Automatic annotation (TrEMBL), chain A:
Signal sequence residues: 1-20
Keyword Metal-binding part of the UniProt annotation: no
Name recorded for this polypeptide: Dockerin domain-containing protein
Top-rank lineage group of the source organism: Bacteria
Source taxonomy: Bacteria, Pseudomonadati, Pseudomonadota, Betaproteobacteria, Nitrosomonadales
GO biological process, alphabetically ordered: polysaccharide catabolic process
Keywords: Signal
Signal is among the record's keywords: yes
GO molecular function terms attached to this record: hydrolase activity, hydrolyzing O-glycosyl compounds
From TrEMBL, chain B:
Domain of life where this protein originates: Bacteria
Domain TonB-dependent receptor plug: 84-184
Subcellular locations according to the entry: Cell outer membrane
Record PROSITE patterns: TONB_DEPENDENT_REC_2 (PS01156)
Protein family: Belongs to the TonB-dependent receptor family.
Pfam family of the protein (one): Plug
Protein name as catalogued: Iron complex outermembrane recepter protein
GO molecular function: siderophore uptake transmembrane transporter activity
GO BP, sorted A to Z: siderophore transmembrane transport
UniProt lineage: Bacteria, Pseudomonadati, Pseudomonadota, Betaproteobacteria, Nitrosomonadales
Length: 445, 766
């Protein structure tokens, strides 16, 4: 059972549903002198949601997003997945698991081909209208223009060519090909050969104004390495710009066609589990590992060869004990934190401020409607309703108002670092009588 | 060394003290032994000295004809004429204005503002300048904290102990070095006692309560001693909760406009994580001879405060992927420590500690023509730890020794002056996650002289300083963590030489009237962070790049002042113009740094996850402004005097090369009036200040709205028998409960100034 208060916190923070749009990250690995790319395989990891994506797009069973004509992988992203605007995205990301690449291996992208546009009106692929383009901003720190000698940078500790920062850090995918800088840095791997980074894609017109017609956009690129001679095979990235799932699925299916004849994709070499608890194979045991194990345990996932690392304690079952053990094994500074912050108006559905006498009811449910209200304490356990406004559901455990009995049940109210259950009765004339108040356990106990 | 103080008090055997403590204890002990030896030497001198003999020639039978009582005649040097850009805050005015920080204590003063970063930080801004350009001094020796490095670092000076605060607006580099190019704030607290109490013991005890945030401040001071020995003791305790404000702390329109975020974590009525707790104390001892004194003090302060939420992380939807997994989990019981609110959105806390050892020695008129030989030395061990969600992530350390040796002469009747030497040795280190400045050693040596010639109703003053400084980074190269940026080699040493000069003419055409013309040519060597920064700096939401070829910044200032002091009214007006050549500033490179990916880009999708990249650079700039104040006694009634004060100040700063952009974070035009009713035993005052909108915020900065600030105060002095006096006061600030977003605050769009507050206090002196 989800603890109401904790759910309330998480739910309040995860209000941007668009951020949850599934996407596919590009998994990168190296073998010998060559670089490979493929779909991310780690169950549950963000950016590895092939199954969820196929389900949401209602793709035929067993269909992999690969272009029928060429067998190129298609990675999916959505321009609406960022709260700041509909025409920009950080997805797809690029990631590699532990030891899949060399330590400090520099991965770059190389833009290829031309920008293609799916016109939902005609259900066909073609050129984007009116010169719309996708601009991609890559990393600059490993650019050949970087000068790290301060004597050539007028004393600045580093600069980009000729003592300035006037480098072109963007790649433009347009209908007539690639403009700007065709190769820029993705990122450098850490000491474990792990990579996880995101770039910045913008849909815009030739004047640089953000926006573009609804549809799907397709670009092509490959990744290169400073430590390997052969780049990866080219792959495609398909962006959804305002299409519903069915329309986007149509755009994808038009590319996939009948892909049954395509040779199976190369699989990355199996990576031995060397760090107990590191289920996403990024070289660390962190909070995401713990959350992934908890999710697998909640879904009662049976033990399989591809998820055997989720069974951290080796008892043959994926359960909460594995997550608890992973938490103990967590070594990152963001992992273990003492609980020192009390609940506040920010994270509690109901808060009473003893100094002002204001009872803030941030979520009241009455029948199917949700409200936000403030009451002022008067005397003799009477509150007067000051404000009441219609609102959206915000908390898992809102106060509940029974319109027939006039009873307001508050499951948890925060008062000066203590928690209470409370019941108020509507006495009419916007006055509420406090009928019951009893202290209850703190949120996390 | 932070543990030295309790160690010194609790441990008896030296060999059990930490090595560093032992070193400091040796210095302190040696200094005291030297004082004792000096006292004995002078005592011997006095025995053989003939000066106190007061008997007439003895008669043949050795019986004095007449014996006179010894008489001591003490001369008091006339105070130096106060420059028109100088003010001294002390006594009742100081007690009424004392706030939690030095910035809030001084923000009513003309030409001064308070650069807040939440209520835990309040750094004085003088004529729009602060940081490395304004020196904060504690009885003449620097506070040597980390305020110049970052705006979220508090000043390590406790205003509750202040007996007098001297403010100089404008360059004061001659005595205090290049970092005083914008002025000084010198807090005199008499930790090293300069007199013995008349009745063996005297002192004060004080307590205050602030309704805003339930703040409590308590302090005591004790002075003990007799004749040649004086002791002082003091302690304070400060505790306050989150600051209360009208409305919401985060300006959501700004967040939408600047970062494209429509949903931010915001609350109403207070600024979360702005509570603070601070404790500290000192002990001082002095030997007071007839013509010399020597003393030392040990002091320690511990200040723990939070900085407002949102200052270091903005986007609640970005948790490295956790934001997508957590909503799918039904039961997080047992995992609250890693998925609870504090773990997901951790608070930033600062734990600051400072221990100081101060030494002072003065010898008055050792020979004819020498008025005083003075020595001051301060050994400062400062550190603060930045804590994210309960876990330390960066430690800043500053170990500094600053000394000064001065000789005041009066060889000629009309010509007096000072010759001195000042030196500073500083070891700075930032260890941990946010280490955008490497470990560095900084040394400086300054030779200076000031001379003053008085003739008739004219006084001419001049000063000259030669300064040499060296900066040695401890690292050979800098690397950016997690970045493909190649390692950046650093020079072994950077050397600077600077010559500063000042001259002033003061004319008294009439009694109580003076006109002063002041010229300053001052140089400041670049500071460590300006030379060697490399990396993201979260409190300013920037990525800083240092420049090792920065040259001295030069300020040429002309200041014309007029003051008139009549029985019924007084007027003070100052106008100034400063031309800053090679003014050091941060140039926006147009690039951004993505914090989570640790990548440099030209542009990024999420402004909340990216910070702008700034490179330190130099450009000429100019400042022009004024301060003015008119005081008048409107009526003299039997119950008291009705007083009116009208005031205004303003500064405008612009670059004069490459476009005339505004200098960022300057205070707006301020004006107002104070109506007072004053009696010998009580005073009341109502003060209104209007600050206009700041419409010249500087490049990439936001404008601030104007505000009305209404304050009121009342105090009453009463005697408690012959042993003590009691002073009661109440002060109301921001009585209109206005939302005040200060133009000089880095965090103005995240944390406004405090809302309405009432401070009640009492102070007993005995």
């Amino acid at each position: 059972m989800l603890h109401p208060a904790l759910f309330a916190i998480v739910a309040a923070l995860m209000f941007n549903q668009a951020a949850a749009a599934p996407h596919l990250d590009v998994e990168v690995w190296g073998q010998g002198n060559a670089l490979f790319t493929g779909y991310c395989r780690t169950p549950g990891v963000v950016g590895c949601e092939l199954g969820r994506l196929a389900e949401s797009l209602q793709l035929p069973a067993g269909t992999l997003p690969r272009e029928a004509a060429t067998g190129k992988f298609i990675f999916l992203a959505d321009f609406r997945d960022f709260s700041g605007g509909d025409f920009r995205t950080r997805n797809p990301g690029f990631q590699s698991v532990r030891n899949a690449l060399l330590p400090n291996e520099l991965i770059s992208y190389r833009a290829l081909g031309k920008l293609k546009y799916w016109d939902p009106a005609f259900s066909s692929w073609g050129n984007p209208p009116d010169g719309f383009q996708i601009k991609l901003f890559g990393g600059l720190e490993a650019s050949s223009q970087v000068i790290s000698d301060y004597s050539q940078c007028a004393g600045q500790l580093f600069c980009f060519s000729e003592g300035s920062f006037g480098t072109d850090g963007s790649t433009v995918f347009a209908a007539d090909g690639i403009h700007g800088n065709p190769e820029l840095v993705v990122d450098i791997t850490n000491n474990n050969g792990v990579l996880h980074t995101h770039l910045s894609f913008f849909l815009e017109n030739q004047q640089g104004e953000i926006g573009g017609p609804v549809g799907a956009y397709l670009i092509e690129m490959q990744v290169t390495s400073n430590a390997r001679y052969y780049p990866s095979e080219p792959f495609l990235i398909l962006f959804n710009a305002g299409l519903d799932e069915n329309a986007f699925a149509a755009a994808l299916l038009a590319l996939i066609g009948d892909s049954s004849s395509i040779a199976p994709p190369p699989l990355p070499p199996a990576t031995p589990v060397s760090i107990p608890g590191d289920v996403d194979l990024n070289g660390y045991v962190d909070r995401i590992d713990v959350a992934l194990i908890l999710l697998a345990a909640q879904n009662s996932e049976p033990l399989r060869p591809d998820n055997i690392r989720f069974d951290v304690n080796g008892d043959g079952v994926i359960d909460r004990n594995d997550a608890l053990l992973a938490k103990e094994l967590c070594t990152l500074r963001l992992c273990k934190r003492p609980i020192i912050e009390p609940a506040t108006a920010l994270n509690m559905a109901t808060v009473f401020d003893g100094h002002s006498g204001i009872l803030s009811l941030n979520d009241i449910q009455a029948n199917d409607l949700h409200f936000r209200a403030q009451m002022q304490y008067q005397d003799e356990a009477v509150f007067v309703l000051n404000t009441l406004q219609l609102d959206r559901p915000r908390y898992a455990a809102p106060a509940r108002y029974n319109t027939e009995t006039g009873i307001l049940e508050i499951p948890l109210v925060y008062v000066h670092e203590k928690f209470y259950k409370a019941t108020l009765r509507n006495m009419g004339d916007a006055r509420f009588q406090l009928e019951r108040l009893e202290e209850t356990d703190p949120v996390f106990e | 060394m932070d543990n030295c103080l309790p160690a010194l008090f609790l441990r008896i055997r030296f060999q059990r003290l930490p090595r560093a403590c032992f070193r400091h204890w040796q210095i302190a002990t040696g200094f005291l032994l030297a004082i004792g030896a000096f006292h004995h030497a002078l005592a011997d001198d006095e025995i053989s000295d003939t000066s106190p003999r007061t008997t007439l020639p003895e008669s043949a039978d050795q019986t004095p004809v007449m014996t006179l009582e010894p008489m001591t005649i003490m001369g008091t040097a006339l105070p130096q004429p106060l420059k028109s850009n100088t003010s001294i805050l002390k006594g009742r005015s100081l007690r009424l204005q004392q706030g939690d920080t030095l910035g809030t204590t001084l923000d009513k003063e003309l030409g001064l503002s308070n650069a807040s970063y939440g209520p835990g930080v309040g750094v004085p801004v003088i004529r729009g300048l602060t940081g490395s350009r304004v020196r904060m001094l504690q009885s003449g020796i620097g506070s040597h904290d980390a305020t110049s490095l970052s705006p979220d670092h508090a000043v390590a000076i406790e205003p509750l102990f202040a007996e007098e605060i001297r403010i100089i607006r404008g360059p004061e580099t001659i005595k205090y070095g290049g970092n005083a190019i914008g002025g000084i704030v010198d807090v005199k607290d008499h930790r090293i006692p300069e007199r013995a109490p008349q009745n063996l013991i005297d002192g004060s005890i004080e307590s205050r309560y602030d309704t805003n945030g339930h703040g409590t401040n308590s302090a005591f001071k004790l002075n003990l001693g007799k004749d040649w020995l004086a002791l002082s003791l003091g302690g304070f305790l400060r505790d306050r909760g989150d600051i209360r404000i009208p409305g919401k702390p985060i300006d959501e329109a700004f967040i939408q406009q600047q970062f494209g975020l429509s949903d931010v974590q915001n609350v109403t009525g207070k600024i979360p994580n702005t509570d603070s707790k601070s404790t500290g104390g000192f002990a001082g001892i002095s030997w007071l001879g007839q013509s010399a004194m020597a003393g030392m003090s040990i002091s320690h302060m511990d200040n723990r405060y939070g900085v407002p939420k949102g200052s270091h992380g903005l986007d609640p939807n970005h948790l490295d992927g956790l934001e997508l997994i957590l909503p799918q989990l039904d039961d997080l019981t047992g995992f609250e420590d890693i998925f609870g609110p504090q773990a997901l959105f951790p608070s930033i806390r600062m734990n600051m500690r400072q221990t100081r050892y101060d030494f002072k020695g003065e010898w008055y008129e050792p020979v004819r023509g020498i008025e005083r030989i003075g020595f001051r030395y301060g050994l400062v061990d400062y550190q603060h730890t930045e804590i994210e969600g309960g876990t330390p992530f960066t430690l800043f350390k500053n170990d500094v020794g600053e000394g000064r040796f001065e000789i005041d002469h009066n060889f000629f009747q009309r010509l007096t002056g000072t010759v001195g030497v000042q030196w500073i040795n500083r070891d700075f280190a930032a260890l941990g996650v946010e280490t955008f400045v490497p470990e560095t050693r900084q040394q400086s040596l300054g030779l200076y002289t000031t001379q003053q010639y008085a003739w008739d109703n004219w006084t001419v003053s001049s000063g000259l300083r030669f300064e040499q400084s060296r900066i040695n980074p401890r690292a050979d190269q800098l690397s950016l963590r997690g970045s493909a940026l190649p390692p950046i080699p650093l020079p072994d040493e950077m050397k600077y030489r600077a010559v500063s000069a000042s001259a002033s003419v003061q004319w008294h055409p009439l009694k109580d009237t003076s006109v002063m013309l002041l010229f300053n040519h001052s140089k400041r060597s670049p500071d460590i962070q300006e030379l060697l920064s490399l990396g993201p700096h979260l409190s300013t939401r920037s990525f800083d790049i240092g420049n090792v070829q920065l040259t001295n910044e030069t300020m040429n200032m002309i200041d014309l002042g007029f003051s008139l002091k009549k029985e019924r009214f007084g007027l003070r007006v100052n106008g100034y113009y400063s031309r800053a050549n090679n003014f050091i500033y941060q140039r926006n490179t147009g690039l951004v740094y993505e914090i989570d990916n640790e990548v440099i880009r030209q542009r990024c999708v999420s402004q909340a996850e990216c910070v702008s990249i700034f490179a330190y650079d130099q450009r000429n700039a100019e400042f022009i402004g004024y301060e003015s104040e008119l005081e008048a006694r409107l009526y003299r009634l039997a119950q008291g005097d009705v007083l009116l004060t009208v005031f205004s100040d303003y500064v405008r700063g612009r670059f004069v090369q490459g476009g005339r952009d505004d200098i960022p974070r300057l205070p707006p035009l301020r004006y107002g009036a104070e109506l007072g009713f004053s009696h010998a035993k009580w005073h009341t005052a109502l003060r209104y200040t209007r600050a206009e909108a700041q419409n010249f915020p500087g490049e990439n900065e936001t404008r601030t709205r104007g505000y009305h600030l209404l304050t009121a105060s009342a105090d009453y002095q009463m005697g408690l028998g012959k042993w003590a006096d009691l002073w009661l006061f109440v002060r109301g600030t921001n009585l209109l409960n206005q939302e005040i977003r200060s133009a000089v605050s880095f965090l103005r769009n995240f944390a406004p100034e405090p809302g309405r507050s009432l401070v009640f206090g009492l102070r007993a002196t005995f």
